[in-house]
Amino acid sequence: MSLVESIPVAEFGVINPKDTVRIERLLPGPIERIWAYLTEEQKRRQWMAAGPIELRAGGTVCHLFDNSRLTAKDDRPPAKYAAHAGPIESHGTVITCDPPRLLVYTWAEEMGEPSEVRFDLAEQGSKVLLTVSHSRILSRDAMLSFAAGWHTHLDILADRLNDREPSPFWPKHTALEAEYGKRVPAA
After folding, report:
1. Which residues neighbour 7 within 8 Å (Cβ) at sequence distance 6 or greater?
2. Which one of 42, 72, 125, 166 has the largest count of C-beta atoms within 10 Å of its C-beta?
3. pLDDT digits (tens, 9 = 90+) for 76-108
4. Which residue numbers in the chain have pLDDT < 50?
5. DSSP assignment letter at 166
6. What is d(CA 155, CA 12) in angstroms, rounded to the nearest whole number?
7. pLDDT at position 179, please?
8. Across the strands, what pairs with 121?
9. Dist CA 67 CA 1 (whole Å)
10. DSSP label at 164?
């Protein structure tokens, strides 16, 4: 069974509408713990990116990605992402911050027209439903990259929260990007 074949269908992101991907994960709570992994630099760097976030409307967001060092035994990125082999910096602006339930900010402002990321947290007993919605994605290629990226990063978060060793980032991202390519219609 391949890496992608072992993933439950419910864990894949939903493309809705064509410029948005939404991915949900049910994570071990409490809600304050998940909020901390979204907003505190030392915790966020374990699954996504380091860098400070000013938790107020108009606050700055700085993500310092180093996906090649995010997980153990990781390979270099595929040729398509060779420019991402080392640290990458990305900036945004907080739109809404309502701890510990909602965080919305712009994404990659330095790339021109920014997209938008929304994190919704909802308690479900002792667990927390985290919904990540990334919208205003301008191309199919970007959609495939973001869908695979969020899927991979959220799987790493779930593994870290459950004291499991995550799969290496780049091989998983590559397999997921190919799978999303089958799921996301061409323009």
Report:
1. none
2. 166
3. 888 888 887 788 999 999 999 999 999 999 998
4. none
5. P
6. 11
7. 94
8. 130
9. 25
10. -
